[in-house]
Every structure is written in structure tokens, then in C-alpha cells.
Amino acid sequence: MRSVRSRLLQLAILVAIIAIAPLLVPSNYYLRVMTLIYVFGLAAVGLNLLMGFAGQVSLGHAGFVGIGAYSVALGSVHWGLPGLYSVVLGAFVSAAIAALVGRPILRLKGHYLAVATLGFGFLIALLITNEAGLTGGPDGISVPRPVVFGWRLRTVEQWYWISGVALVVGVFIAQNLVASSTGRALRAIHDSEVAAQAIGVDVAKQKLKVFVVSAVYASLAGSLLAFCNGHITPDSTAGFLRSVELVTMVVLGGLGSVLGSVLGAAVLVLLPQVLTVFHDYEHLMLGLLMVLCIVMLPIGVVPSLAKKFARSGA
């Protein structure tokens, strides 16, 4: 019962922030920044299911972000599909590819798994870059805004609310997945695959399942990013640095913390905006702050703070 109350409280806080933020920000610029936090928060929540709960490293998850983003672009520009159909298509393609490549690479462990996922991410980025006739190559491609019930969704406010609702739904599903028997199986796998197998957990099936789920989260985030920006490039969606950012969001917010993923996304999106006042030293300051966060809060911001509050309350 306490766990249910905790999940509902976390969800209520997230909903309150999304509902109140537009009343506090002075311009659409800040709304756009908040929208990016929600989009990348959605991808980070999915990646945290894989890394934080199942203990499986992925350094190429931006590949699925790219698949989702380019699905809506190609679906709209080349195949004449309505925007929402393209989103569903991207999710199905990502799930199918994750199921296909996940089966062999999830047999690997540790550094070998990290390198295999890294290679997958590079492969998707190279494919998008080299198929210039379809994707526009390194210059990218424009994404028409979708029309829903006769309304063309093009304003910052519209995408703010759509991204916010998508994040809330994503967090709600992740919370329930973690609290289910699947979540318990994933935590058992994280602690020890041998022990999990000994108590009857189908390790290969559970790992593949969470890999597919996390790929769908990333694909949906990529589709939202494409519609929000109206123009996408390989680097902004499927690039290696994007994969590193997603992993950093998860680690910084807290492995095994659904809400921590959103906080990690907020830090990674907001800090570069704040640190622009340091001009040439922006990246130096960003790296320094990240190192300090990891050193002072080694298990992530949310788990570390929760631990400190629990001690002070005891």
C-alpha cells in the first residue's frame, strides 16, 4: 500500500509541475525547453527500465530515437502517411528491430554488451546519413506537422501539452511495470542472472521484453522530437553523443528510479541553457558540474536524496 501511495505521489508531483509550469515561464522559449525535457525524459524512463532495473547496458539507444524520428519524417514526406500513423509505424519498426537484434546481443554481458549496442547505434546513424536520397543525409530532413481532427499541430504550446501527457503516460506505465511480476523478475536478473534462473525466471525472455519496451519508449520520444523541431538530422536524433546523453540522464537521475530519469533529463537539458553565460567555458563548467554530481551523489540524484531524507526521518 505504501508503494502505491509513493507511486501516486510521484505521478501527482509530475502532473502538477506540467500543469503549473506554463503559468510561471515568461515566454515560449522556456516552454520549448520544458518540452525537450519531457521528450528526453520519456526516452530516459524507457532506458532506465533496461539499465536501472534489468542491469543491461545500452550505448546505442539513440538509434531507436532516430528510427522513431525518421519514421514520421519519411512517412509524411515520401509515403503520404498521416502523422499519427507514422508514429505507430516507428514504434512497430523499433520493436521489431529490437526483438531481432536483442535476441543475440542480450546474450552478451558487461563490456561486450556495451560494445554490441554501441555498434548498433553507429549502424543506424550511418544508415540514416548515407541514405541521403530518402533521409536528406547529414543535412537532415524537414518534418511536416501532423493534422489531427482538422487542426495542424504546430505551436509550442500544443507540443508542450502533448509531450507532457506522453511523459505522464510513460511514467505511469513504467511504474506499474516495475511494480508487477515482470519488474520483480527484472530486479532479480539485475542482482544475479544465475539466481534469477534458479527461482524460475526466464532470463532471456525478460531481458528481450524490457529491451523491446525501452526501444518503443525511445522511438516515441524520437517521433515527438521530430514533430516538435520540424527538422531532424542524424546527429540530433541517432548520433553517438545523443546515446551518451541518454545514459548520462539515467545515471545522473538514478539507476532504478523512474522519476530520477525525468530529473536527469531536466538537468541535462537545462544546464547547457544556464551555462551559456560562461561562453567559452560552458562545456568545461558542464563537465565539472557533472563530475561533482556523480562524486557527491554516486547512486543518482533522486535515490541519494531519498536516502538522506529517510535517514533524517528515522
Description:
- By secondary structure, the protein is mainly alpha-helical.
- The chain contains 15 helices and 4 strands.
- It has helices spanning 2-24, 28-53, 62-77, 83-105, 110-130, 132-135, 156-179, 181-191, 193-198, 203-229, 234-237, 240-253, 258-274, 282-296, 301-313, and strands spanning 141-142, 147-148, 151-152, 231-232.
- The strands form 2 sheets. Strands 1-4 form a two-stranded antiparallel ribbon.
- β2 (147-148) and β3 form a beta hairpin.
- α7 packs antiparallel against α10.
What topology does this entry show?
Layout: H1 2-24, H2 28-53, H3 62-77, H4 83-105, H5 110-130, H6 132-135, E1 141-142, E2 147-148, E3 151-152, H7 156-179, H8 181-191, H9 193-198, H10 203-229, E4 231-232, H11 234-237, H12 240-253, H13 258-274, H14 282-296, H15 301-313
Antiparallel strand pairs: 1-4, 2-3
What is the succession of H and E elements? HHHHHHEEEHHHHEHHHHH
Total number of β-strand segments? 4
Mean pLDDT: 89
Arrangement of strands in the largest sheet: 1-4
Most strands sheet: 2 strands, antiparallel
User: Cα-atom Rg, whole angstroms?
Assistant: 19 Å
The SS-based structural class is mainly alpha
Measured distance between first and last alpha carbons: 20 Å
